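Kindly review this protein for my students:
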Amino acid sequence: VQLVESGGGLVQPGGSLRLSCAASGFPFSNYGMSWYRQVPGKEREWVARITNTGGSREYVNFVKGRFTISRDNAKNTVYLQMNSLKAEDTAVYLCMVFVRGVTNWGQGTQVIVSS
């Protein structure tokens, strides 16, 4: 299993970013996917999840209405569209998939929200 995130960067408060997670090594369309984020010194926290078909999506309260998770099963990629970004959204964002009893993580992509 390999997960490769991209799309992070520096953005001003109120701005937007679209993160991508390219997956390989497993039948992508069979598995739900999740995004997490981590700030140094704090626990990794769950942000959003999407079912294998994309038919159901869930979000942590503090991103509802601002972030949207989606997927393209033809491209083996899951996305996180982040709008109305706030300074407190600054973190490393990671995608995760649980395959055959193993939790798999990407290396993460850094998002910095600052003026």
Q: What stands out?
A: The CA atoms of residues 43 and 113 lie 19 Å apart. The mean pLDDT is 97. The radius of gyration is 13 Å. The first strand starts at residue 2 and ends at 6.
